[in-house]
């Protein structure tokens, strides 16, 4: 049976992550770590120009040296470890050291050796869509990401912010989970995306919250739905 990876979203903000290797793959992994607010430490005898730029901007630490025994101590302080050199023996040694230190490790070129693999990702603010083929075809993951990138536009960023605010309001005023769920389900049916695309969110948001007032009820939510339908005509 092939393995079933467990998908999860890790909070890496202000967490040290160790990247061994300074080439293309290391740069890509470092880029995604920076996007997640992590503090990458890169160990390698050579670095891409982009890694050096990030170093000058004080966004990454670089240790200019081949990986060796003296770097094992860095494992302890790392949330995640990436073995991204072009030397298989080095990658396998990094993987063994990371595992001995109880760390999850990602191994370039040897997906079965690693504790985790990285998906292709589309981000729209708080919306994260991750795609993986369990290592079978990274090219297909990248292709599907391209399709999702077109399908989910920038409007999702403010749409999710709106939903988050609405959900907070419902949580504060509706004690019962069953009723909350029904209200959120109703709100997800509102035709908001076309209005957000037309740049009308601010106005619409204001009206919706004054229509709901301090007591969200299914009746008021149905009124909102009807009002929104008129707006998109
Ligand atoms: C296991 C994994 C490593 C891990 O754990 O991270 C892995 C491994 C390998 N990739 C290879 C090749 C390519 N990788 C890409 C691109 C990406 N690869 C990524 C992830 C992963 N790649 C993980 C599994 C993901 C999954 O489950 O699907 C993405 C999603 C994220 C990221 O790396 O940041 C990023 C897309 C970013 C984006 O565009 O969104 C492209 C396409 C391109 O460059 O355009 C190609 C060439 C086309 C092809 O070969 O398909 C090879 C063969 C190397 C060789 O020739 O030897 C191996 C080695 C092997 O197969 O072992
Ligand atoms: N290029 C790609 O898109 C992909 C490559 N891979 C695999 O990932 C590996 C790395 O690929 P690239 O980043 O493209 O290679 P690269 O040649 O751009 O970079 C390799 C890096 O490893 C460093 N390195 C070598 N020995 C080291 C050591 N002892 N300690 C620390 N760093 C050391 C080098 O200095 C260099 O910075 C390869 O094995 C490749 O097969 C896997 C997936 C995709």
From TrEMBL:
Which InterPro entries does UniProt cross-reference here? Met8-like, NAD(P)-bd_dom_sf, SirC_C, Sirohaem_synthase_central, Sirohaem_synthase_N
UniProt keywords, alphabetically = NAD, Oxidoreductase, Porphyrin biosynthesis
Query: Which reactions appear under catalytic activity for this entry?
Result: precorrin-2 + NAD(+) = sirohydrochlorin + NADH + 2 H(+)
Give the Enzyme Commission number: 1.3.1.76
Q: In which pathway does it act?
A: Porphyrin-containing compound metabolism; siroheme biosynthesis; sirohydrochlorin from precorrin-2: step 1/1
Q: What is the residue range of the signal peptide feature?
A: none
The keyword rRNA-binding is annotated on this UniProt entry:
no
Superkingdom to which the source organism belongs: Bacteria
Give every Siroheme synthase central domain span. Answer: 124-150
A GO BP term, please?
siroheme biosynthetic process
Q: Name one GO molecular function term.
A: precorrin-2 dehydrogenase activity
Q: Which NCBIfam families match?
A: cysG_Nterm
Task: Report what the protein is called.
Answer: precorrin-2 dehydrogenase
Organism, scientific name: Paenibacillus thalictri
């Amino acid at each position: 049976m092939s393995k079933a990876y467990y998908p999860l979203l890790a909070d890496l903000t202000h967490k040290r992550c160790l990247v061994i290797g300074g080439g293309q793959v290391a740069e890509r992994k470092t880029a995604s770590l920076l996007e997640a607010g992590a503090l990458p430490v890169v160990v390698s005898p050579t670095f891409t120009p982009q890694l050096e730029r990030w170093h000058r901007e004080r966004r990454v630490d670089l240790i200019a040296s081949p990986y060796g025994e003296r770097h094992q101590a860095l494992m302890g302080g790392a949330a995640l470890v990436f073995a991204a050199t072009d030397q298989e023996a080095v990658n396998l040694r990094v993987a063994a050291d990371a595992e001995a230190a109880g760390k999850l490790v990602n191994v370039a070129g040897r997906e079965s050796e690693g504790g985790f693999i990285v998906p292709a990702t589309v981000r729209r603010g708080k919306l994260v869509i991750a795609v993986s083929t369990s290592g079978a075809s990274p090219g297909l993951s990248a292709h599907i990401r391209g399709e999702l990138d077109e399908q989910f536009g920038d409007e999702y960023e403010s749409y999710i912010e709106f939903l988050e605010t609405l959900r907070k309001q419902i949580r504060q005023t509706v004690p019962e989970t069953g009723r909350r769920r029904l209200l959120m389900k109703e709100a997800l049916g509102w035709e908001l995306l076309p209005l957000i695309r037309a740049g009308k969110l601010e106005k619409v948001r204001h009206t919706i919250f004054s229509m709901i007032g301090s007591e969200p009820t299914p009746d008021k939510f149905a009124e909102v739905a009807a009002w929104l339908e008129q707006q998109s005509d």
